[in-house]
Queue: 2 jobs
Job 1
Amino acid sequence: MPPVIEARDLTKRYGAVLAVDRVCFSVEPGRIVGLIGPNGAGKTSILRALLGLTRYEGTVRVLGRDPWRERAGLMREASFIPDAAVLPGWLRIDRAVDFVAAVHPRFRRDRTRAMLAKTQIPLHRRVRELSKGMRTQVHLALAMGIDAKLLVLDEPTLGLDLLARRAFYDALVEDFMDESRTIVLTTHQVEEVENLLTDVLFVDRGRIVLDGSVESLATRYAALSVDPARLAEARALGPFYERRSLGKILLYYEGADRAALAALGELHAPDVADLFVAKLSGGAP
């Protein structure tokens, strides 16, 4: 099957500011991809380009379409949840469900109502009468009711408490995801989603600094906990990041000889959150 997303030399400028710098990546069907980076790294600009919401340089194909020139066709098969709910305050929740059902041919009213039934939100309430977290839940339920091949999420659980965030991600996997669908999401709560992700794209200063499957990270990267007495030997093996933790020193490696590392201390595979910090924090001293 062809990639769901294919970007080649994707570039986005805002005047003199280079927000996205010739990034190249592809996303296969049936994957859950975490687009992860600090504030201002270029994540939202990349998402907006993929959805045809902004002009860009380079070549982008999403579901076989040029997003900028064929956005109407693309959005019949894609769904987008931005980082801020945009429903008008006067709108009743049940009327919002009716409206989306009337304008989107792939909307499944039953799925949205099932998601709303798991909340404490009465359908006769108006948006302005809801808390920020409740408004976010309504927006999520409406967007996930669209039977989309591609779901794009930009900080989707912003404003939700821990229980609501977990309920959302459970619904995402159980009620939405299957082998024919693809999800691309950004989030600052990396620890909460890393067990869901199949792939990660780390973005920093408009560039992709890591692109790979979560499964491959365990063989590609290693973290070594070493005593100070053996630090010089460990540094000689070329770590790309180093930090102190509970009296020991942690060093991170890419493509290093694991047998040589294991002889110096305790070796383990870094999780996604730790690897993100290591990759974006600079080299070892």
Note: The first helix runs from residue 43 to 50.
Job 2
Amino acid sequence: MSFHQVFILLGSNQGQRKQFLQKAMQQMEEQCGSIVKTSAVYETAAWGNTKQKAFLNQVMLLQTTLSPDMLMQQLLTIETALGRIRTIKYGPRTIDLDILFYDELIYHSTVVTVPHPAIQDRKFVLIPLSELAPRKVHPVYKKTVQKLLKECPDILPVKKV
């Protein structure tokens, strides 16, 4: 049985945001694998649909035996269990769980795309990710997380909570 190293982004902008991040991590430990390390929590203005509450974001490194599709299905189940309702794109949510990297894999299915297609465009992803893995190389762009952060066009402020 082989273990996979998966970086996951957590985000919440509804209700008790920090508690939703903690509950999601607790459920991931129970259902998906073991959490190796987590970044600090950051607050960021909403991206995409900007007329909503600020998000709390955090990146974690998960060790799992699940395949990318099985893991994503499990993350969607956790989102639903924590009250996530999908209505509008980039809308407010109790919890959002995204697979950023899955080992060095480049993979696309009807369930998930890895690496996440927008990593390089979002500071709220790159800042906590660079805290955990600054030298991790993006398998598509062949650049480190640190370099992607330096080149990132996103101007939204991201502040440590």
Note: The first strand starts at residue 4 and ends at 12.
